[in-house]
Design goal:
With about 160 residues, the chain is an alpha+beta fold. The chain has 2 domains: about 5-85, Rossmann fold; about 100-155. It has helices at about 45-55, 80-85, 100-110, 115-130, 145-155, and strands at about 5-15, 20-30, 60-65, 70. It has a 4-stranded antiparallel sheet, with helices on one face. A hairpin with a 2-residue loop joins strand 3 (about 60-65) and strand 4. The two termini are about 25 Å apart.
Length: about 160
């Protein structure tokens, strides 16, 4: 069965504690392979929406479907496996300073238990794709902001 939507929100609402609703009646679907960007003024709820999308938060109401799974009825212990299928590039990149570009990109793959040689080859290929094939052993502090962003993209 082909996946119609990678992510679907249906009338999602979100509030923190007893405060006002930050997001109200949000509905949309993202198809596999589609590209989207999110803009808005400061305080509009962009970060909250993104946290809902990568399962860092659960909505206070409405339905979120990720890979055809209803997150509201998905047990908490199954959420990490779903999160591992989502790549996120944070604004601050969250690279580990004492690790090389290769080590930063390889870390989540190693956590998932992949074979060392396969991971190493895959990571080198990914870094080549983002134009960092010559900077494999560089630490984040020696990379430009744009290069750090590309390491984060390869890791995602």
């Amino acid at each position: 069965m082909e996946l119609r939507f990678v992510l679907r929100f249906e009338n999602v609402g979100m509030r923190y504690g007893i405060g006002p609703e930050i997001l109200r009646d949000i509905s949309f679907s993202l198809a596999p392979g589609s590209f989207h960007f999110l803009t808005g003024s400061s305080g509009a709820g962009k970060t909250t929406l993104l946290k809902l999308m990568y399962l860092a938060l659960r909505p206070t109401r409405g339905l979120v479907h990720l890979f055809d799974k209803d997150i509201s009825v998905t047990p908490r212990e199954e959420l990490p496996a779903l999160r591992r299928q989502i790549g996120v590039v944070f604004q601050d990149f969250r690279l580990i300073d004492h690790m090389t570009a290769v080590e930063n990109v390889a870390m989540p793959l190693r956590v998932n238990g992949g074979r060392h040689i396969e991971i190493d080859n895959h990571v080198r290929e990914l870094l080549g794709w983002v134009g960092l094939g010559e900077r494999l052993d560089a630490r984040p502090s020696t990379l430009s902001g744009g290069q750090q962003q590309r390491v984060a993209i390869a890791r995602a």
